[in-house]
Design a protein that fits this description.
about 270 residues, alpha+beta, Arc Repressor Mutant, subunit A, Beta-Lactamase, 2 domains, 6-stranded antiparallel β-sheet
């Protein structure tokens, strides 16, 4: 006669299998969201997520049927589908950071004349949620809204990481370690930058993803002191010499504080 534990075992395995499938599917979505617009091939997706080709194919097929993944026309590459965008719209009112930051970004861009960006944390990534292209003749236009980077790669990502709980920082450094290698970044270098941010309240560093690009970034903190975003000025290195930092950093700090205050007021009003 079968015991209750024996009867429960198959159900538990099915539940674990279903949960694993959800995690893998979200991993595929995040990977596609961080890829270039031309998308990724199945073989690249499988390799990046350590999946077998049949497993990756099953997940992609299911996501494609739901419309959250699409094939790039005329190729065997996959990219994020339109349905993912429509699903995301439902969350925008609950996370008003872009609406709150929009007028601040307008003022910053007009004042500094260089391109300014709003980044937010997303799992083990940072995502550019909004931007304003500067009026200065030499502009940074290659970074688009929605672009993702492993946390620790972008200057904004490091600015946000500095104020995360230590257990989160440790987890990100461990889980992103292999992802740092293509950028010639190391967990030790990231950790050193985090200490710089805590000490001075901002980070200025040259880009590891593009040549002749420098960024200054300041974190945006919530009431609990946790990072919800970062504001960055990104420009050619010649536009951000050290002599100009004393002009830009206080402006960025004031902008970050304004966004923080507005978020607090919205939270209280709600």
């Amino acid at each position: 006669m079968q015991t209750d534990l024996e009867a429960e075992a198959p159900r538990k395995r099915r539940d674990e299998s279903g949960t694993q499938c959800i995690h893998r599917s979200l991993g595929v979505m995040r990977l596609l969201a961080s890829s270039a617009r031309e998308g990724l091939k199945l073989v690249d997706i499988a390799a990046a997520l350590d999946l077998s080709h049949p497993t990756a194919h099953r997940i992609l097929k299911a996501l494609e049927e739901e419309g959250v993944v699409e094939r790039v026309q005329g190729s065997r590459r996959y990219t994020v589908g339109a349905e993912a965008a429509w699903l995301g719209l439902a969350a925008t009112e609950r996370f008003p950071i872009t609406a709150v930051a929009a007028p601040v970004l307008d003022q910053l861009s007009a004042s500094i004349r260089d391109s300014v960006f709003l980044a937010v944390p997303s799992h083990n990534d940072s995502v550019y949620a909004d931007r304003r292209v500067g009026t200065f003749p030499v502009r940074v236009t290659t970074l688009s809204v929605g672009a993702r980077r492993p946390l620790g790669i972008s200057v904004a990502g490091r600015a946000m990481m500095a104020f995360m709980p230590q257990r989160k920082i440790d987890a990100v450094l461990t889980q992103n370690s292999a992802r740092y290698e293509p950028y010639k970044m190391t967990p030790e270098r990231v950790q050193a930058n985090l200490e710089d941010v805590r000490r001075q309240g901002y980070l200025c560093a040259d880009s590891v993803t593009a040549q002749d690009r420098r960024a200054i970034s300041v974190p945006v903190l919530n009431m609990a002191g946790n990072p919800v975003a970062a504001i960055s000025v990104i420009a050619p290195i010649s536009r951000l010499p050290e002599a100009r930092w004393p002009q830009i950093v206080p402006t960025l700090r004031a902008a970050a504080q304004e966004i923080s205050r507005d978020l607090v007021q919205r939270a209280i009003a709600a």
